[in-house]
What does this fold into?
Amino acid sequence: MAIGWFLPYLPAMTARPALSADDNAPILLPEPFLKWFAGHGWAPRLHQLELLRRAEAGASVLLIAPTGAGKTLAGFLPALVDLSRRRRRKPGERARGVHTLYVSPLKALATDIQRNLERPVTEIGLSVSLESRTGDTSQVRRQRQKLKPPDILLTTPEQLALLIASKDAETFFSDLRYVVFDELHSLVTSKRGHLLALGLARLRKLRPELQTIGLSATVSEPAELCRWLVAQSPGAAPQADLITVAGGAKPEITILESEERVPWQGHSARYALPEIYAAIKAHKTTLLFVNTRSQAEFLFQELWRINEDTLSIALHHGSLDVGQRRKVEAAMAKNELRAVVATSTLDLGIDWGDVDLVVHVGAPKGASRLAQRIGRANHRMDEPSKAILVPANRFEVMECRAALDANYLGAQDTPPLRDGALDVLAQHMLGMAVAGPFRSDDLYVEVISAAPYAALSREAFDRIVEFVATGGYALKVYERYAKIRLTEDGTWRLTHPRFAQQYRMNAGTIIEAPMLEIRLIRRRTRSAIARGGRPLGKIEEAFLETLAPGDTFLFAGEVLKFEGIFETSCLVTKAASEEPKVPYYGGSKFPLTTYLAKEVRAMLADPARWSALPDQVSEWLAIQARKSLIPGPDDLLVETFPNGRLSHMVLYPFEGRLAHQTLGMLLTRRLERARAMPLGFVATDYAISIWGRRDMGAMIADGSLSLDALFDEDMLGDDLEDWMADSWLLKRTFRQCAVISGLIERRHPGQEKTGRQVTVSTDLVYDVLRAHEPDHILLQATWADAATGLLDVTRVSDLLARIKHHIVHKDLDQISPLAVPVMLEIGRESVVGEARDEALREASQEAMIALAMGEIRDDGARDAGS
Amino acid sequence: MNALARRLKQGECEGLAMRLGGEAVVCDPAGVLHLVEANTLVVSDLHLEKGAAFARRGMFLPPYDTAATLSLLASTLDRYRPSRVICLGDSFHDRDGAALMPAPERERLATLMKGRDWIWITGNHDPLPPRGLGGETLTEISVGALSFRHEPSAGPRRGEVAGHLHPVARLAGRGSRRACFATDGERMILPSFGVTTGGLNVLDRAFHGMFDLTRAMACMIGHKGIYPIGFRALA
It folds into this structure.
């Protein structure tokens, strides 16, 4: 049986505080509900009743509970109880609007919940209609829903945006009583969350008395979510009520102890495969989590290589074809699989079969993520979850240890909520114009009632109005093409109905990185290329751009040979070899969280804690203490030493790869100005290594290079600006902002732009805009995104503040033990960004010689051109 | 470096001299073709007023593209001082582009045209003569052994110079896309000149059958000059 949310009410659990715990509390549950619980031998849980009581008293509520606590039923109970008391509609009375809206981050979750909810609704005998509305819902069904709204509508943030941007939103939501947000913790941290917050503000405008119910896993700042759920007003920060359910039994987590040596660097954890396989064999069903798609591919392939008992081990990640994923999910629900190797696509709360072990390969990067992944095992709250962490290298050993301590402490480090994005506001504003004319004064008040936008200035708001109307350029040449225009009655109105259609086609905030479909052909022939072949899934264009035809790589558990990109497909053939030539790229796309980084630094600084680490690792640190030094918890250790003919500077900020990448770029620029002649750098999650021609240790000693000046906080000013100007990261961010804000359309009536086409033009638009109007509102939005997103500037800035006066320098004769992992990364990085002219010159010479020597065969050349 | 600044810098580099259909030509890193004997400059796919064309459909791209493209063109004209300029079609992004062009840009363009033979070849974006701008509008023109039209004809065509496809190329395994002159010594397809125009890989199906693949080269525009690369070294 699939585990739904009703399982937790097993008779064995009556020992917990239930209905009888508080005899003074009035029993709020109507008779049919009590009967239903009793009929199954269950009792309602205390937090379910508490939530009902508060909701009946008129409050909005945030429920924080671990997986398996019956959260979903709790969230729907107030709505179901209210609906059960509703009198029948008299014949001829107008159709009622939606009573309860349920918003979830995943389409699949909305459908899942609908299935799970139908059963109690039927069994209790409620006359309640339930329908879902997602991107997959047919046009016919949507139309019918508009005419005859269901009592409970299950939907996604994007669909809500479309619903409120329609002229009949007022009628549709005229009876709205509750809005339930599932997995709120994961919704609020993204731009989708911003769009959703604005949508909620509009719903509140339509129905000021509506109540919200948020369901969330544990978060570090519940107050933020409580504010998110209710209307904010200037000078006040009201909050929803908070109900917290303590976690169940402590999870049993261990760090895998291997006979083999823990590697210095890398992310594959290949050394631990025999132990991992043994663990799979010893358990019924194991979920193996990794951080990236390529790690998943690698682990899957390696496990099958040693799978002597042919255990049913499957692979599941977001790039795989949907059909293939569904198959795995179905097999899992039927308990047909012994193990699934998965990435974060499984992080959210879809229920799985009887998982009795979670293995996490690689460092978990964030303690919250670890807690959630472990919650995946054993959905019964009272039995302890079992998990094994498999660190892939020595730093990860420390990280795993820290994560483990953090999990026991119940520490949480979900990212802080950021201010509402301006590009999202621009999209919402056009949607509101589609719904009907608006006054800017009114819309401003409505927008700042949404928690993420509470601090939005009127000036910024007005610039967004201008942006939506005509692009917001200083050069006002587009007035006559305005999308919305201020009319005599003081309202902004849409100038043409076609803009409403454009809006509907482009609403939403999920901008996918350009992905290409991978198609498997048997041989590289012209007809095979024309036909296309069987789709295997999708892959990032950025990865493919690093490949040359003939290169082999891992995908969907197979070694594939790259044949080329044809239109929007990537064609591959099966490779003869078993070893992919191109290593799966990079370590982890998740940076180490601030909290975990702090824990790792603290552990490093405290030799007393090293005993908890494997011997090889504690010895390594002890040698480091002898040969160089161990930095204090707030210190930044800077080591300099020669390596070959080059001088190296290695620093250990432990701030995650993104922040290190940014810092590395900035330091290199400064070192160049200081004439240290830097040649390059490499960054990991833990350290940065910069190398150059001049002896940096000697320069520091004779005072010609000052570390204080090198790490001065003002590097975040001009240096950053200069560097960012041409950064591809910024261009990618700009593309997202341009699409979300409606500057560039994803789809135009009659034609569909692919990700590839959008990329081409936004880079150029970015350059033109930067050259001519550098303070344009969209560039500001891009900057704000980049600061928290890909460049992690915020973290670099915190780091620089932290290490001021805490920089310790050690000049060494040779490489230090701590530097080994990052030094091994050198040369593994592929060249990012633009190739230098040298490569072009070389190739043109090669080509010229080849041409002169007559090496080009006719067939080869034709292949290249076909 | 900003792409615009890079374009200006590239314009200062040496061009690549070659023979095309028997005529002496120079592929200039600014993205134009110079016919040495006829002192004629050929520029393709200016796509002027592209921002405005999009704005007319509700996408407010920055209105600065025309000014930027004209600046680049002005500096190129300054260097060659050609007696004749051939705009190889798609000079304006849409039919209304020329008529609705703001006055400052219109005057700037008029200054560039002054004292020269100016030929507008019609393109799919601008099938009619640009309103109120002067110059001569043709669908095709021949100069010496070369003929000039907007869309390349299918199959091999000796001496034909065209635009339309916005060729770009990428070295296999390394580096990013660069605009290029695609040629096999017999015919040529020029890169697009306008600052907000995208590109199409020369290995795309659209280029099939046009070139003698044993000689086909992408003359890629690098930072410091033009580099001819055989098609088989591309990805």
